Amino acid sequence: MKVKNFYHLNLISSIKTEVNMTSRVNPASSTPLPPIAEEVVNDCESTINNVAGVLKVPGHIRGFSNYDLSEQTVFNKWKQITGKSFASYGFSPVELRPFELREHLEAKGGIGKQIFGVYRMDGNLITDLGLPFDHTLPLALFVAQRHREIPFPFMRQAIGVVYRGENPQAGRFRAFYQADVDVIAPKLELTSDAECLASLMTALTELNIGTFTTYINHIGIVYGILDAFAIPEDLRKNVLTELDKADKVSEEELFTNLQKILAGIPKKEIENLMEVFSFRGPIEKFPIENYSEQTKQAYSDLCEIVDTLRAFGINTEAIQVAPNIVRGLDYYTGLVFETFLHGKEQYGSIMSGGRYDKLVETFQSDVHLEGVGGSIGLTRLFDILSRHGEIPKREVSTSDIFVGYRTKEQKQFAISLARKLREYGANVTLYPNKSNIKKQLTYASRLGVPVALLAMDHDSFVVKNMYDLQDKKGTDCPTQDAAIEHSLQLLRSNEQN
C-alpha cells in the first residue's frame, strides 16, 4: 500500500495513537497494530527512510559487539596487552585463513548447527566454506599441513574473531574475539601446561579486570572418582553432564537428576558422590588418599603444574581444584581449567582450556602430536565489565600527546615537535587545521589525550596536563627541548597513576 509523502509522519502518528501505540518501545504493554495498520506504518517508515535512495541506518544487531569510540580504544589496548603478555612467554602470533572447508569444521562432533556457512550473493550459491568457530581447529589444519617444517614445541598465539550460531544473550555472541595460546609437540612435559596457564593468568592480571579464580582439574581424577564409586561406563557421560551443572541448579535438583540416572544405587552413595565432586579448595587439601595409583598420578601431575606456576611467580592462591569441571571429556586428556570473575560468576567462564592429545589425527592419522592450550573470551570479558560500568571511558584515541599551534607561523614548530616526540616513541596527534587554541584544546579533550603541547611562538611553548582539572593554564617552556622533556615527564606520570 503506497501513501503520499506529504503526510507520512502524521499518518504514522495518528495510527499509533488510535491503537494505543505510544509505548511501542515496550511491546509487553502495547496493543498490537491490526495487520492493515501495520502495513501502512511499515510502508510509511520504509518510504521515509529510503528517500532519494538513502538506506536506513541499522540499529544494534543482536549477537555482535557495538562499541563506541572510547570502548574501541580500550578494547584495542586489551588486545595489545594480551598479545604482549603471551609474547613474554614465547608465544608467537600465527595468522590463519578466515574461511575453512565446512567438512573440516564439521569434523568436531556436535558443533555443526553452530557453524556459519559462506554464501555467494551472485547466483544465490552456498559455498563449501564456513567461518571458524574457534582458533584451535584452523591450527590443527595448519599443523597437519606443515608438521614437517614446524619446530617443536610449537608455541603459538592467536587473537581474533571467531563465529558461532549462538542464541544471542548476555555473554554469548555470534562473533567475538578469543585470545588463544597453544603448545604442540610430539611429547609435552607438564612445564608446557603450566606455561600455557601462566601466560593466560598473567594476561588477565595485566588487563586489571579485578579478582578472579582459576579452577583446575585433571581428567584422570574424574575417571578415578567414577571408578571408586563403581559408576557404570554407559552412565558416566550423563552423570558428568549433571555434575557439570552443579553450580546452576539446587542441591535437591541435582540429587533428583542423579537418582534418575543412577537407579538402584543407594541414596547415601549418590550423596557421597555429590560431596566429592563439590570440593573447592587448594590442591593440598584435596582428599586423594583413598583412590587408585592412577588417580594419584593425575593428582601428582596437578601438584607439579601448580608448583611450576608458583615458580613462574603466579599467585597460586587464585587457583583451586574443582573435580566437577569436566568440560570436553571426549577431547581433553589431562589438565582442564576454567576461570571466573569474582561476583560475576553468573556470566560463565572468561578463560578456559586444557591438555589434548589428538589435535591433528582427525586430519592426518599418521601424525601424533600432544597439545595444551587455552583461551580468554575477550569480548565476553569486556561485555561483563561494561555491563557493570567498569570500563574506563576517557580516551577515544591512541595518542599520548596532542600537538597544536597558535598561528600559521608556528605550524612548522608544531610539525618539528610532533616528529621529535614520535622519535621518543610517543603516539602524537598533530592538529591539522587553523583554529584558535580553545578549539584545539576542546578537540584534545574529546580525544582523551593525556598531554597537550602548544607552540605559541618560536620561543614560547605550553605543556598542559589534560587529566589535571586544576591545570588551567599549563606550564610555560622556553625551548622545544624543554617542552618535549616536560611532555614526556607528564606522560610517564599519568601512566603511573
Mean pLDDT, nearest integer?
A: 86
Query: What's the CATH C level of the largest domain?
Result: Alpha Beta
| Whole-angstrom Rg | 29 Å
Q: Strand count, sense and closure of the main sheet? A: 8 strands, mixed
Number of helical regions: 15
Which spans have pLDDT < 50 for at least 5 consecutive residues? 1-7, 20-31
Please indicate the count of domains: 4
CATH architecture of the largest domain: 2-Layer Sandwich
Shape: elongated
Helical content class = 25-40%
CATH fold descriptor of the largest domain: BirA Bifunctional Protein, domain 2
The CATH superfamily of the largest domain bears the name Bira Bifunctional Protein, Domain 2
Strand portion: 15-25%
Given helix and strand content, the structural type is: alpha+beta
Major beta sheet, strand line-up: 1-5-6-11-10-9-7-8
First-to-last CA distance: 62 Å
* Count of extended strands: 16
Overall description:
With 497 residues, the chain is α+β, with helices and mostly antiparallel strands. It has 15 helices and 16 strands. It starts with 7 loop residues before the first helix and ends with a helix.
